[in-house]
């Protein structure tokens, strides 16, 4: 072991982790005919008498003939089944440094407040007089994000970052249509390091996508941008820093070039953790930006599945095109403004995930300006601290070796050397990590710009000891790869189930997305 | 500028730890690590945000702010129109609030086996309600599900028009129009609206026949419709679509499926809908969630924008695990060449829904369907007895129905203001979105509305009609 590694001693704890093995059946195999999990009071006798034969209330052609083949279970059977499955989910109990997702602590007070009936039992179509508390919180969060970005108006209708990117494309369409230029401006420019949702939503919104490749500095050259920009440019959609931890220092010039050509500039602030309180999108010239409240603002990810919020902010010039309604303040009252003739309308029903906005608001109030600035400092400090330890591990190299300045809150590494020397690749290491009670790392968005990638993001939540343990696990797995590669390649070993057989998930004859499909498949094989 | 004391959410906010880490890296200050950002990009002042609060102060602030809300629990509510009050069993809330899945990323099947199994069970149970073998992981809402499904149909057929019922939630229609792109775009999909029969509220079949053509990629309708109606012509509508080579897309409220036919049984090719009624609270609108389901055929599977969870064999004989299937066609893998786009959705609500469906079982769905029908029809009957009040479409509805107040001489807004003063949220005002229906409101009655609740509404309305 090298000297550098001695500061990351392997504790015996690494050997002791064992994931809970419940051998829990699929719920479709459980239950007993006649069991009930919930009962409902029947309608009162007078109601039943007045209404008469209930089946006559349904047109005969539309009556269900066969009961759905759902399990029949008691309440505790259902409860404990799902509690056992929750125990077989590592969540954030291990150490989750899942890069690009900005794993943060989800404060319990925020959950407690969001689950109060004043929010859970609020109907979005209630009269605004009865929703003043919720509207006040939405408005105050709007003000906070305006201060953090320099934008003039935020809206929370998008249920995630990708939907906010889509909203940006809808706003871009409406803006150019208002100038009579939409037919001409049918191109959106992204970089290969931009999150896939940006090109994907641009394409789904009807735009042609131009993707700029990176040069040796880690970002596309100005010449590449100039060659792509024309009077057909509707917008650019870029993140900065990117997932390699590289910041494009020419971004102001980029925005100027795009504006000069009549396009809009959208800042996908996916990696805002590194730059919050350090810079503001509007001051770099951007027309619009988005913040992921489920990442940077401490609200839960829920299995990368949401409910989440892509908070979308823009300049006063673009604000007329924002989806309706907007929450506006009139003196001491808040109201919903839906009288907005240039609005793109709706991209999702109602006001968005108000409970997520509430949690994000609570996070900003707990952190304050100093806390937020410190979180950014710590995330960058921790990443650079980890880099030293990780680069000392055999088989680990760093992306973009020419970019020598300290990376921001993330660094992308490669295990290509390890793969070549041992046959152990990044997916093998992911699986093996879970044997130590550590959440597998994130590899990379597609396409893989470096081979066998991995991307840890330390964030500000975990302590130095946790970071040291994480590094120690990678170090241990590296040792295993070079001494006993089969151990890694057949992992996990300490989890409820083993890895899937190679290829079964890609073969229509061996995959099944529902139980009924699986049963048919099994019968066909038998 | 650092806080004098460590912040409870940040273990490394202790200055001595930061110094240890700086020493390890070999730099003097954290600021040196930000050298990539040019000076003229940097904000030169601290953010001007409201002061930081301790947990106790935050709690007081939020409790005070939230107390300005008045909820469907404090009041008697008849609001629906896309998100509905149903009973959420306490066990569902306990399950859905577990920190393990609340906080996790999807990670890998290795570390999160329980989460993957839960997701698979959601798709499996919804598949039983729908009589469909292929169910994707949830999308963000009913409207977004409909938008994606219509785009799937356009890709499947290579056609550029879709036929959509006009008796639709205007919010959902607005989403669909966005998904179909403006006319200036090369891939624009034309949305043709189908009238409803003013006497029955059901789809005008003649208008449908005259509108569907060789250009039609899909016919989209809903059961129950936005106006609450169960269209008995569903099989005929599907047949008209099929004869033209178009896909039949049906939007459905799954809580009705204990008593109503699954759309697959009357000819639907693609089914979309909401999962909110399956154990999810209102959350001020944040409870919505959608799904897409079809037959398990390659032509459909190959067009989904969603994530799929598959059960499959592991390397240990006889053991089964789970994995993400068909990811290679998603925008995660293919970027702008993927099937629409994928991203954060409402997967937490799939956990609520799977627990809810398991607690309900076949009998629960049958009973709740019958109770809703009884209560809703009784409420309509009682309201229709009031002078000046008319039930616009008095039969063939599920849990929502249109109440017309034209003959009372009062507007829905006036009536709802007066009801609100009595602690009642009247039905959703339809007068601006459906002017042809006059002063009408969409009333929602579910299993939670008792006879005395209905009598309270009737009494309050009677009082204000007489005035």
Write a short abstract of this structure.
The complex is a heterodimer of chains A (526) and B (467). By secondary structure, chain A is an alpha/beta fold. Helices cover 36% and strands 10% of the residues of chain A.
Report on this model:
By secondary structure, chain A is α/β, with parallel strands linked by helices. Chain A has a domain at 113-366: 3-Layer(aba) Sandwich (Aspartate Aminotransferase, domain 2). Chain A has 17 helices and 12 strands. In chain A, the strands form 3 sheets. A 7-stranded mixed sheet of chain A has the order 1-7-6-5-4-2-3, with helices on both faces. Chain A has a 3-stranded antiparallel sheet with strand order 10-11-12, with no helix packed on it. In chain A, strand 8 and strand 9 (333-337) form a beta hairpin. In chain A, helix 5 (108-114) runs antiparallel to helix 12 (354-391), helix 8 (161-178) crosses helix 9 and helix 12 (354-391) packs across helix 15 (464-483). The longest helix of chain A is centred in the C-terminal third of the chain and has 38 residues, at 354-391. Chain B is α/β, with parallel strands linked by helices and 467 residues long. In chain B, 36% of the residues lie in helices and 14% in strands. In chain B, the strands form 4 sheets. Chain B has a 7-stranded mixed sheet with strand order 2-8-7-6-5-3-4, with helices on both faces. Chain B has a 4-stranded antiparallel sheet with strand order 11-12-15-14, covered by helices on one side. In chain B, a hairpin with a 6-residue loop joins strand 9 and strand 10. In chain B, helix 6 (142-157) packs parallel to helix 7 (170-179). Chain B starts with 14 loop residues before the first helix and ends with a helix. The mean pLDDT of chain B is 96. The interface between A and B is large, with 225 and 217 residues.
